[in-house]
Design goal:
Layout lengths: L1 H8 L8 H21 L13 E5 L4 E2 L5 E9 L8 E9 L5 E4 L6 E5 L21 E9 L7 E10 L2 E11 L7 E2 L5 E7 L14 E3 L2 E3 L6 E5 L23 E3 L4 E7 L23 E7 L2 E8 L11 E2 L4 E4 L11 E6 L13 E2 L2 E6 L3 E9 L8 E5 L1
Parallel strand pairs: 10-22
Antiparallel strand pairs: 1-3, 2-3, 3-7, 4-5, 4-8, 6-7, 8-9, 11-14, 11-25, 12-13, 14-21, 15-20, 16-17, 16-19, 17-18, 18-21, 23-24, 23-25
């Protein structure tokens, strides 16, 4: 613009036509100031090349409440290293860009796993860690079946020096893959499923482990199983005594045939209930535990009663075989069975996998109360707070 104006001025005698010179200078100043006023620094797009990638595919997982659960992960580079701040992260239906979940949506599960030091103690392995880990967004949505999109995309909103950068990417299809079907780990009535599906208060997907600069969610679809009576209580008499809990001492059965690859037994139960000793670490947090390698993955059973484990390393077990009894050992503030399915071994550096239970009789939900009559369900995941009978 400046060159064009001064070419126009050259048509006149600059030594004689001071009026035109002053007029044109004023015009240039006005145009320049107008351009500045029209620019909005907040809306300017920063020139950066950050990319997002899906690290665990969203899989359509059905639960006994008629909902569909999507729980997965997205990563991007550590933008904080270059002075950027996270303004928002959004999950959108790729077809119409409807926002399904965002950072400010407290009704959905979204964990922001910032770059941090390795989760495995450095003395346990040798690996040159440079501290340049990725940003990880762990997303969890509980949707009505009609709300489930065919494809999802993601929007990362960054800001720096009052300027904003919007990055769209990491488009992925919602997988309808076949999900492994297993049997229940119990037989009997009144078993209560806690800390499962993708609700915001679920402690399991919030546990994330970084090893060799790769972050996984080992407990993504885990369940903490307890047991209640017909009045909806979990224990009788003194709550601090683990033996008074109805789930304590319950038989635990193999959910699929396979080979035992890990056994730990002999750790004491935590007493009183509500306390956990200071000697618990990543390696013994499961307390007395059994891990079985099966055709669908590694099945994890934790917190057995001391000296109740009935299987040995290398032993082949069949689905439905008795393997131990529920206790309160390890990282357990109250008696329960922690169960999960993992892609690899050791479980704590592998991805947690979804699974269905072949037969469930749902009698109600701890929050909404008992059903008028039991409902039979097949090949579904339990819901958070669901109460079930197993034959």
């Amino acid at each position: 613009m400046k060159t064009a104006i001064w070419n126009f001025v050259s048509l006149f005698n600059l030594k004689k036509n001071y009026f035109f010179i002053l007029l044109l200078i004023s015009l240039f100043s006005f145009v320049n100031q107008s351009c500045k006023k029209d620019s909005n620094p907040v809306a300017q797009v920063l020139d950066t090349s950050y990319e997002m990638k899906v690290t665990f595919t969203p899989i359509e997982v059905k639960t006994t409440d008629g909902k569909v659960n999507l729980l997965y992960g997205v990563e991007t580079q550590n933008f904080e290293k270059e002075g950027f701040e996270l303004k928002d992260f959004q999950v959108l239906n790729a077809a119409n860009e409807t926002i399904l979940c965002s950072r400010s949506d407290t009704g959905k599960f979204m964990l922001i796993h910032k770059p941090a030091s390795e989760g495995i103690p450095p003395e346990a392995y040798y690996y040159p860690f440079d501290g340049h880990l990725t940003y990880r967004f762990s997303i969890g949505m509980v949707l009505d079946p009609s709300q489930v999109p065919q494809k999802i995309k993601h929007r990362l909103v960054l800001s720096k020096d009052g300027k904003e950068k919007i990055i769209d990417g990491a488009e992925t299809a919602v997988s309808k893959q076949i999900i492994a079907v297993i049997s229940a780990p119990f037989k009997g009535e009144g078993f209560y499923a806690a800390n499962t599906t993708t609700l915001a208060n679920n402690q399991h997907p919030s546990y994330q482990m970084t090893y060799m600069e790769k972050t996984t969610v080992p407990e993504r679809f885990c369940i903490d199983w307890n047991k209640m009576d017909d009045k909806g209580t979990f224990y009788h008499d003194d709550v601090s005594n683990y033996e008074n809990w109805y789930v304590y001492g319950q038989d635990v059965f193999a959910v699929a045939s396979g080979q035992v690859v890990y056994v730990n037994d002999g750790m004491p139960d935590q007493f009183p209930v509500g306390t956990v000793g200071g000697d618990i670490n990543i390696y013994n947090s499961g307390g007395n535990s059994v891990i079985i390698s099966t055709a669908v993955g590694f099945t994890i059973f934790s917190h057995f009663k001391p000296n109740s484990v009935l299987v040995k390393m290398g032993q082949n077990v069949k689905k439905g075989e008795l393997i131990g009894k529920v206790g309160n050992s390890g990282n357990s503030a109250a008696p329960h069975l922690h169960f999960g399915l993992n892609a690899n071994f050791p479980w704590y550096i592998s991805e947690g996998l979804p699974y269905y239970i072949d037969s469930l009789e749902k009698t109600g939900n701890y929050k909404t109360g008992p059903l008028p009559s039991p409902e039979m369900h097949t090949n579904e995941l339990v819901e958070n707070g669901g109460v079930y009978n197993f034959k």
